[in-house]
Amino acid sequence: MKGKRAQTMGLAIISALAVFVCGFMFINFLMPEVTQFRADIGCASIGTLSDGAKLLCLGGDLTIPLVILAILSLAVGAVTSRLNI
């Protein structure tokens, strides 16, 4: 029984690393889109923007950190789902 649990844990760690690596590869494709979004709205000159545009800039800025949190939660979920706690 102990050997099966060790194999399951190893598979969980490998799965989590695969999710982690693929997720961070996805971020490299997402970064130019966020940069283009910020340039189109004009987030660099925040003083001349309306309140709605400021909220859009804030939402665009939060995109990358939220994707990173989602990737981390998927990786941790892949590991902890195999623990049977």
How would you explain this protein's 3D organization?
It is a single chain. With 85 residues, the chain is mainly alpha-helical. The chain has 2 helices and no strands. The protein is elongated and about 60 Å long. 82% of the residues lie in helices and 0% in strands. Helix 1 (2-41) packs antiparallel against helix 2. It has one domain (2-80).
How does the overall form come out from the CA principal axes? Answer: elongated
Q: How many beta-strand segments?
A: 0
Amount of helix: over 70%
Instruction: Please report the distance between the alpha carbons of the first and last residues.
Output: 16 Å
Work out the helix count: 2
Which sheet architecture does the biggest sheet show? none
SSE succession: HH
Structural class: mainly alpha
Number of separate structural domains: 1
How are the SSEs placed, and which strands pair?
Blueprint: H1 2-41, H2 51-80
Structure in a nutshell:
The protein contains two helices and no strands.
Features:
85 residues, mainly alpha, 82% helix
